[in-house]
Structure formats: structure tokens, C-alpha cells
Amino acid sequence: MLYQEQHHRQVTRMDQKKRVERTRSAKEEEEEVILEMVDMSGMALKSIPDPSINTRFICKLDLSNNDLQTIPESLTARLLNVMVLDVHSNQLKSLPNSIGCLSKLKTLNASGNMLQSLPRTIENCRSLVELNANFNKLTQLPDTIGFELINLKKLLVNSNKLVFLPMSTSHLTSLQILDARLNCLRSLPEDLENLINLEVLNVSQNFHFLATLPYSIGLLLSLVELDVSYNNITTLPESIGCLKKLQKLRAEGNPLVSPPMDVMEQGLHVVKGYLCEKINGMHNNSPKKTSWFGKLARCSTFNGANMPREDGDNYIMHNERSIDSLSSPKYLGMFSPRRLLSPRSYFSR
């Protein structure tokens, strides 16, 4: 009798577990059915018709290759679950401010339009991984874009009219690809060392506008490709020689003086060697550049063994012994009067 009761309880528990699993799988299937992709691309649309389904069920909306001039604020605000929004190749002059409501948006493709600016509310799209705004008329990016888009990995803004990249760009710590070629860039942000995951940097074809590169470019520890071709650069920062992972460097089309062209023609390995030698042989009358050596040493991109230092420059190198270690009990005998005044010098051993 006892055995039958225990067996009955076990069967009951298994039935309950199966019902729970069925309920979960039904909910998961229901969620998969709820989220749908809506494709209205290439339909020559001048306005957006009401979607045939509830907008909160849309996970991807493709409105590319149409003749749209505006996107209604009310429509965008209702796309609460959209993860991909593609509006490339339209006639858009602006994006709706309500785009900041898209908290789940991961990919935004707004390339090939006539955008002159991006709404400041885009910084609220904190899930954004890829932002493509190529081939527009952008003259600037939102000042605070780098402070909030902590998940952004691709920032594509080539073929615009950008004069500067905002200083907050250097706070995009997840960024892997930055493409800002074919603009009117005068300079790059100074503090690039925060871009610890940046692998590809392309600022080529800014032509006569871009004449210098920041010295902090040598602190991009993950950088694999660097394209600075067809600008007005005369000198590559010596810190580029410290980029251990760099595999591709393009600098043709510049009036380069350092490194000279005969060095550039010998390939990346020779160029990096040349730049490292310039660091080692740097004169003491260059205080502006020596301020970077502390950061280079801390980032392990340069050991500075042969670097000349002015008084007061406190760089601890790997092959130097600090005074604290010399004052340990092991070395106290080195500084005793008997040892120092002995005809046989301890240090001559």
C-alpha cells in the first residue's frame, strides 16, 4: 500500500512538471510568433502606410529604397520591440526625436539620405551596436553620443561633411570599427586611449583638412588596421611604432616627411622600427611628446629603456630596480661604511 502511494506521488509530480514545460514552450512559441519582420523596401513609398500588424510586434522594420522624406514621430514611438531599423536610400532630412524610445534597437541603417544631423535622443538607444550614417550631409554628431552608447561596436559616418568628431567619441569603449573617411575632419579627439577595443580606424580622404594625428593613437592597443591615406599629414606620430597588433597601415597620398617615403616603401615592419628608433633617440627639448611616455609605458606598448629623461620624470621601467628594493635587508650590507670604504668595491663584482 505504501509503495502504491509513493508511486502515485511520483507520477503526479512528473505530470505537473510536464505541464509546466508545455506551458513554457507554448509561451516561447507564442513570443516567437509575436515578433515579426516587416519589409516595405523598394516600393517607391512617399509616406508610410499603417502596418498590417500591431507595431509592438515588429522586431525588424525595413523601409529602405523608397522616397520617404519623413518618418512619423508617432510611428517610431510605438516600435517598442524593434531591434533593426533600416531606412537607407530615402530622402530623409532628419530622423524623428522619438527614436530615443527604441530601447531595444541594435542596428540603425540611415545611410544614403540627406541627414544634416542626428537627433540628440539617439543617445537613449543604449542597446545600439551598429550605427550606419554613411553618405549623408552630416556636419556634426551629437556632443554626448559617446557617453551613453556603451554597446556601440560600429560607427560608420563616411562620406559626410564632418569637421570634428565629438570629444565623447573617445568614451565608446566597445567600439571596434570607426569609419570617418571622405569628410572634412580637421583633427581627431586627443584622448583615444579609452578605445581599448578599436580594431579598424579609417580617416582617409579628408584631403587637405586633416594635417595631424594625435599622439595617443599609439595607445590603441587592439588596433589592427589604420588608414590615414590621402590627407595632408607630414609626420606620423612616433607612438604608432608601439602598436603591437597593427597589421595594415596605409598612408599614401600624404606629403610625408617623417617617415620619409623610402622608409614607407619598405613596409610596415620597417616603418614601425623607424618610429621606435625616433622615440629612443628623442631629444630632451621635446617636453610635449615626453608627457606621453608614461602612458605608453603603463600600457606596455613601450618599455622606454633607452629613452632620455629630464629631471623629475618618474618613469619606472621593467629593467630598473627601485630604491625600495635596494633598501631591503638583503642589500643593507651594500651601504655599510666598511663595505663602501673597502679597497675592494662591492659594486665591481
Automatic annotation (TrEMBL):
InterPro entries in the record: Leu-rich_rpt (IPR001611), Leu-rich_rpt_typical-subtyp (IPR003591), LRR_dom_sf (IPR032675), LRR_domain-containing (IPR050216)
Alphabetical UniProt keywords: Leucine-rich repeat, Repeat
Pfam families in UniProt: LRR_1, LRR_8
Region of interest (Disordered), residue spans: 1-27
Entry's family note: Belongs to the SHOC2 family.
Biological process terms in GO annotation: defense response; response to other organism
Gene: LOC113691513
PANTHER family for this protein: LEUCINE-RICH REPEAT-CONTAINING PROTEIN, PTHR48051
Annotated Gene Ontology cellular component terms: cytoplasm
Protein name per Swiss-Prot or TrEMBL: Plant intracellular Ras-group-related LRR protein 6-like
